[in-house]
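Figure 6 in text form: structure in, sequence out.
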């Protein structure tokens, strides 16, 4: 069991780091929009999270 790629201890350590280093918030989309955005992000070689973060940063740079 100790040789598993993602041991329980590793997952717990990753979760503690994530909770300490990052903020989380929820977004609400109309049905189907999440899948559409995810497909666009994947076509760009990005995760949905990276795609949304880049979009936010680009808007901030443009507007401020």
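Output sequence:
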């Amino acid at each position: 069991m100790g040789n598993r790629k993602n041991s329980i201890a590793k997952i717990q350590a990753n979760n503690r780091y994530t909770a300490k280093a990052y903020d989380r918030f929820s977004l609400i989309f109309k049905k189907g929009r999440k899948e559409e955005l995810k497909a666009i992000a994947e076509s760009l070689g990005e995760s949905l999270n990276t795609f949304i973060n880049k979009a936010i940063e680009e808007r901030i740079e443009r507007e401020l």
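Caption detail: The longest helix spans residues 48-63.
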